[in-house]
């Protein structure tokens, strides 16, 4: 796959360090038989990749959503994935172009930040975000949960005509969009296009 999102065929001897190899994992025989994380962890990671951030300096993990159902689902996952950890929930007025109050859910915990780094989710904001490496080692059902949570935050559905449905992922990070393109192809056989 080229940086322009084009599939090109190369022989193995022509591969170079940094190239991405697309493997269609829609064939379940090519998928891992056991995932290293649960579907709940995958969903939690999907939410944080879409609408959260991790700050190592303050050991802070924060998530925000203007949708109550999404915020409550994330909070429920927090309690399930990190039992006994106290998460702070608050409502705030919109800070940018939004008109709805947003739910903010945060925790300051070095142990939690260390754990998410082990899963491959590193400190940073939307400009730095990538799909955690552990997701690529999961089976299809776990990857689907990650993508479902991601699309809850940074996805949209558009129906320009009665017979046309477009599903879109949004990000300021072109590398993240490229990774989404790869994972949709590798696990589900879904070819995507990039629209600017």
Name the strands of the widest sheet in spatial order.
1-2-4-3
Number of helices: 5
Report the oligomer: single chain
Q: How much is the radius of gyration in Å?
A: 18 Å
Number of strands: 6
Helix content: 25-40%
Q: Which sheet architecture does the biggest sheet show?
A: 4 strands, antiparallel
Strand-and-helix sequence, N→C?
A: HEEHEEHHEEH
Q: In terms of structural class, how would the helical and strand content be classed? A: alpha+beta
Strand content: 15-25%
Low-confidence stretches: none
Give the termini distance in whole angstroms. Answer: 18 Å
Mean pLDDT: 85
Overall 3D shape: globular
Task: Write up what this structure looks like.
It is a single chain. Helix content is 34%, strand content 18%. The protein has helices at residues 39-51, 68-81, 110-118, 140-154, 174-188; strands at 52-55, 60-65, 88-92, 102-108, 155-161, 164-169. It has a four-stranded antiparallel sheet with strand order 1-2-4-3. It has a two-stranded antiparallel sheet with strand order 5-6. Strand 5 (155-161) and strand 6 form a beta hairpin. Helix 1 (39-51) crosses helix 2 and helix 1 packs parallel to helix 4. The longest helix has 15 residues, at 140-154. The chain is globular and about 50 Å long. The relative contact order is 0.19. The model has no long low-confidence stretch (mean pLDDT 85).
């Amino acid at each position: 796959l080229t940086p322009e999102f084009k599939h090109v065929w190369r022989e193995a001897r022509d591969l170079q360090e940094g190239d991405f190899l697309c493997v269609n994992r829609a064939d379940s025989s090519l998928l891992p038989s056991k995932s290293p994380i649960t579907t709940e962890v995958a969903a939690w990671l999907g939410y944080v990749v879409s609408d959260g951030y991790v700050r190592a300096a303050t050991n802070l993990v924060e998530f925000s959503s203007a949708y109550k159902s999404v915020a409550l689902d994330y909070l429920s996952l927090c309690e399930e994935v990190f039992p006994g950890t106290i998460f702070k929930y608050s409502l705030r007025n919109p800070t940018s172009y939004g008109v709805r109050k947003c739910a903010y859910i945060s925790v300051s915990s070095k142990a939690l930040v260390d754990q998410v780094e082990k899963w491959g989710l590193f400190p940073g904001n939307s400009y730095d975000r990538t799909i955690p490496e552990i997701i690529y080692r999961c089976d299809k059902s776990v990857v689907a949960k990650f993508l479902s949570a991601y699309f809850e935050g940074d996805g949209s559905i558009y129906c320009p005509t009665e017979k046309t449905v477009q599903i879109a992922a949004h990000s300021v990070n072109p590398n993240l969009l490229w990774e989404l393109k790869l994972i949709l192809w590798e696990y589900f056989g879904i070819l995507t296009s990039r629209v600017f």
